[in-house]
Amino acid sequence: MQIDAHRVGYDTRMTQLLEWSPLIIFFVTFKVRDIYWATAALMIACVLQLLIHRVRAGSFKTMHIVTTCLVLILGTATLLLHDQRFIQWKLTVLLGLTSAVFLGSMVIGERPLVRRLLEASFSEPLAVSARSWLLINLLWAAWFAAFALLNLYVAQNFTVDSWIKFKVFGFPAASMLFMLPQVFWLASKAVNQPAAASPTAPVNPATRAQRLRERLQSRFAPAQLSVEDESHLHEGHAGAAGGQSHFRVRIVSEAFRGIPSVARHRLIYAAVDDLLKSDIHALAIEALPPDKT
To answer: Which of 157, 196, 263, 292 could bond 278 through an S-S bridge, CB–CB 3.0 to 4.6 Å?
Structure first.
């Protein structure tokens, strides 16, 4: 599938609404009825979120699957036994599993999980050492473990209303404060790329392909990467004017594991954003995780 770079767009607001919808529905239902109605509403909302994401992205999201399974199991126990503690444990179990996954990524795979997540937020390469990434990853694992325990403490020692506020407002706000200093620090580590050449200046196709290859290699550390210049197939195309061109990319990287196809393309476009404004008119992309080759 070939997509003109200047035509790509994503409805990020709809995506964010989808991600937050179960929590919003849970909170509103609790305020209108009680914890048991809110639990039932959360179970339905999580299932709908799972299915809607499948329809929109073409695949299931791992976090949605895990969350939905936990909500259905603990929610069913809450409703059948009429015991709110089960649904209150959900956040602790989820955060505990998340902490374990972050710890496991330090010994499984080429890069710790936090590096895969945070590097995806920057279009420029980051001058951060492997040791620093391990320390940040360990910090995240400790953060999730600490909040898993804190959730149990709040659930056991405070009212249900206080726990709801902690879950809906406290945890997201604290997470934002936890992440912001790291984002600013990483932004200071971004390596500026050379200024893009003027669109009207002649550019050697081999140089364009080389820049594209180097960017993808530094950004995704691919196990396989091929960059093919197909400009000769598009002679006369409006996008070929001004020294821009067409490329076909096939990239296999651990960074794409568990990510839907559309999101993989989005990561690639973000990584080569400045090249799209000068050297590249359109990309034909095949982006795969190692087990899909």
So the answer is: 196
Q: What is the pLDDT of residues 262-291, one digit of tens each?
A: 888 888 888 887 777 666 777 788 888 887
Check if the beta carbon of residue 199 is closer than 8 Å to that of residue 238: no
Q: Which of 287, 269, 267 is nearest to 277 (CA)?
A: 269
Q: Enumerate the β-bridge partners of residue 277.
A: none
Q: Phi and psi at residue 62, in whole multiples of 5°?
A: -55, -45
* Residue 220 contacts residue 255 (beta carbons within 8 Å): yes
CA-CA distance, 259 to 175, in Å (whole number)?
A: 23
Separation of alpha carbons 258 and 238, rounded Å: 36
Parallel/antiparallel/unpaired status of strands 245-252 and 224-229: antiparallel
Angle between helices 35-57 and 12-32 (to 10 degrees): 160
| Alpha helix positions (H), the chain | 12-32, 35-57, 62-81, 85-104, 113-119, 130-157, 160-165, 171-188, 205-220, 261-271, 273-276
204 close to 231: Cβ distance less than 8 angstroms? no
CA atoms within 13 A on the CB side of 54: 10
240 against 136, higher pLDDT: 136
Please give the Cα distance from 168 to 153 (Å, whole number): 16
pLDDT tens figures, 4-37: 433 333 445 667 777 888 999 999 999 999 999 9
Cβ atoms of residues 38 and 26 within 8 Å: yes
Question: pTM higher than 0.90 for the full model?
Answer: no
10 Å Cβ neighbour count for 187? 12
Q: Does the CA dihedral 86-92-12-58 come out positive or negative? A: negative
